[in-house]
Amino acid sequence: MRRLLVLGVAAAFFLGLAAPAQATFGTVLPTLSRNLVSYYDFEHPVRGNKALEQDSGRSGTSLQLINGGADMRVRDGAFWRSHNSLQLKQVNPTVAGNDDWKAGLYSETGVPTLRAFNGARQASIMGWVKMTGQNPAPNSNSANPDDFYGAIGLAGVLSGDSNGHAVRALLELIQVDGELKLVALARRIDGGDSQTFAATEPWQKLLPQNEWVFLSATFDFDTGAMVLYRNGKPLDGKYVVAGDPWKLVGEPEPDLASATDPRGIKIGGSYPQNTREGNACNCRMDSLMFLDRVAKPWEVHLQYHWMKG
């Protein structure tokens, strides 16, 4: 049955009902391609600057490979059609600095190519993650050697007023009720409160060491719904913040994200402007996808199997 569904979607592509960008053909589900704002597979360095990664999505937003440059691309694809992934890591755990390997981009005036998330009604983030080292990482900003970061940065879109940490939509691991949890986290209004949906299962079970896992998070700014997925299947979890943190009650409708261009993208930590280290992730990532709508459950399921083959 799964193979028939995949073939059915492929048939829709060949009939012209959906047309992915050439660079994403064979890796991105055709029904998702038109909403693919940014896609980074770490197979396409920018010509003349291998510390930049081309965006195979429609926005054309090049990604900076920060501090490690071209060495951050490693020969370890998450699935059979992938050759490379992105190595992220903490370089000097005992030294306060900003030399951690992370990726992203930042502009205080906003990033115009990411305007699809300006006033967005929905968003999705997907990608492959493989834990490869000590997580959480030691807090290099602290003099206490027993102090560790309270979060592990994965991938997110910054808010329109972000200092390099605040986000509009994010996949991450953070402290919830005293335990580190895999979460989807988002902020609808710049400067407003965030909401968090935290997975119930222990994060070590969801992200075992040295194993590729396909994570997805969807965000509906109008209804307040967020969903987490692992390898194409939804995860049990709970909303962390009580009440109405996104200010959804009342007019106007529909509820949208702030009408501001995001200040960038962060991957593997915070502060892509490279002013400090924060929430370092000792991990690898592959084929990161940022979409301007909620991927449907069947699309998340098929996207995982589409890549796995």
Tags for this model:
single chain, 309 residues, mainly beta, ten-stranded antiparallel beta sheet, eight-stranded antiparallel beta sheet, 11% helix, 33% strand, disordered N terminus
Description:
- With 309 residues, the chain is mostly beta strands.
- The protein is built from 4 helices and 18 strands.
- It has helices spanning 2-14, 30-33, 203-206, 297-308; strands spanning 36-40, 45-46, 49-53, 63-66, 73-74, 85-88, 102-106, 122-131, 151-158, 167-176, 179-187, 194-199, 213-220, 226-230, 233-234, 237-239, 264-267, 283-291.
- The chain has a 10-stranded antiparallel β-sheet with strand order 2-3-4-7-17-9-10-11-12-16, with no helix packed on it.
- It is globular and about 50 Å long.
- The two termini are 14 Å apart.
Quickly describe the structure.
With 309 residues, the protein is mainly beta.
Class per helix and strand makeup: mainly beta
Strand order of the largest sheet: 2-3-4-7-17-9-10-11-12-16
Radius of gyration (Å): 18 Å
Net shape: globular
Tell me the total number of β-strands: 18
Distance between the ends: 14 Å
Largest sheet: 10 strands, antiparallel
The H-and-E topology, N to C, reads as HHEEEEEEEEEEEEHEEEEEEH
What's the pLDDT, averaged over the residues? 92
Count of helical segments?
Answer: 4
Low-confidence stretches: 1-22
Percent range of helical residues = 10-25%
Strand portion = 25-35%
